[in-house]
Structures are given as structure tokens and as C-alpha cells.
């Protein structure tokens, strides 16, 4: 039985300075990676919008070839060329159904 303080043989711990150095290194790494992740997210969103616009344009072309009705989002949904959620997203992103460039 020990009286008073217990013997601390073989017990090692990190010092406060070592812990601060580790936290500093982690903070620097976070500061380096967070802006890069944010820019990648914006780039991916932009690419997703471009791909979605191509899907809408392709579905409009199919609709033009197969149907005689006016090209509207309601008609595209009604004839199952687009889902309601796709039409809503296209309207929110201001994707036009008619080519302004004549392409």
C-alpha cells in the first residue's frame, strides 16, 4: 500500500506545449483545406447546372420530334419527358425552353 503520493513510474503524458503544437498544426491544415473545398463545391455545382441544362434541351428536342403540342414545362411533364421536380428546378434556374441562338 502506498501512503501519500502514488508512484508514477512508466506514466508519460503530453506536455501542454506539445498539445498546443499539435492543435496549431491541425489549425493550419484546416485553414489550407477549407477554402479549397469551398471552391470545389462551387465548381461541381456549376458543372451540375450545365449538365442539367443539357438534359432539359435534349428532352425538348425529343418532345419537338414526337409531339405537336406547344413546348411548355407543363406539357413536358404531362407527356412524361420531364418529372415535376426537374421542371421546378429548371424554372428556378431560369432555363429557357426555346433556343435564343437558333441552334
TrEMBL record:
Keywords: Cell membrane, Competence, Membrane, Methylation, Transmembrane, Transmembrane helix
Highest taxon, organism lineage: Bacteria
Localization, UniProt: Cell membrane; Cell surface
GO terms (BP aspect): establishment of competence for transformation
Residue spans crossing the bilayer: 13-34
Protein topology in the membrane: Single-pass membrane protein
GO CC entries: cell surface; plasma membrane
Keyword Transcription regulation included in the entry's annotation: no
Chief localisation class: membrane
NCBIfam families membership: IV_pilin_GFxxxE, pilin_ComGC
Family, as annotated: Belongs to the ComGC family.
Name the record gives this protein: Competence protein ComG
The species this protein was found in: Vagococcus fessus
